[in-house]
Amino acid sequence: MRITALTVATLMVSQWPVSSPAGDRSFDCATPGGGFTIAEGENGLELYEGDKKRDHELVREVTIRKREGLCTTGEGDQHAWETHDYLLEIRTVIDGRKVPLLFLCELASSGIPASVSECTETVTHDKRLKAAYEQNTPAPESGAFEKEIQASYATRKNACGKGADTKVEIGDGRIAGPGFDCSVSDAKPAGTGLVAYAATCTVDGKKSSEGIALDLGNYEDHFELSLPGRPDWLKLFPCTPVPGLK
């Protein structure tokens, strides 16, 4: 099963401070602007839209990067620390419709006692996912789509030139098609061929700032696009040659 991505947040890999008390942990899991957040509750993860708690269904979790290590004091004592950055996909019901949401989450934990003021950090495990379509993954500072994928697409195979109801245009920082128009920035590789973007969209007459995602690496002849408020991925078949696609 593949991730459905509608939201994106800036991901920062944390370095846990050595002065943290034993057993300390932090958890941050949110959509851009904090419209939706995930919190740890007594019975598991809880979804909030602002202050309103919502029922939800957990779909899947995909690790982006997980780091484990030790801090060794001058006396030779070793204390473990861990950071885990991951994508969390959930479904919730909004206005009577099931809506998929994608969160970028960061969990950090440390077993370093408060009495330890200095220690030498070493990394014992570092797992990182890379996008399968890495050559078309925009640099984070670009804030726009790579030139190689800026082109015209059709939402059905062999439908290029068949009309506006199947035409999608990807430009520098903008993607538009039947029923939607998005201004896009802040690309983040999301593993397994996915790239998530911060975006401001109008989709089917409704405005959203919950972001979009492109699947750039799991199909030979097309890309796929996830839009806020739409449960299904939109297929994008290139109307001009695009590197990596047949």
What would you say this structure looks like, in words?
This protein is mostly beta strands and 246 residues long. Helix content is 0%, strand content 51%. It is built from no helices and 17 strands. The strands form three sheets. Strands 9-10-11-12-13-15-16-17 form an eight-stranded antiparallel β-barrel. Strands 1-7-6-5-8 form a five-stranded antiparallel β-sheet, with no helix packed on it. A three-stranded antiparallel β-sheet has the order 2-3-4, with no helix packed on it. A hairpin with a 2-residue loop joins strand 10 and strand 11. It starts with 23 loop residues before the first strand and ends in an 8-residue tail after the last strand.
Primary descriptors:
2 domains, 5-stranded antiparallel β-sheet, 246 residues, elongated, mainly beta
Helix content: under 10%
Number of strands: 17
Lateral arrangement of strands in the main beta sheet? 9-10-11-12-13-15-16-17
| Biggest sheet record | 8 strands, antiparallel, barrel
β-sheet strand percentage: over 45%
Distance between the termini: 23 Å
Q: How many distinct domains?
A: 2
| Average of per-residue pLDDT values | 78
Name the overall outline: elongated
Work out the radius of gyration: 20 Å
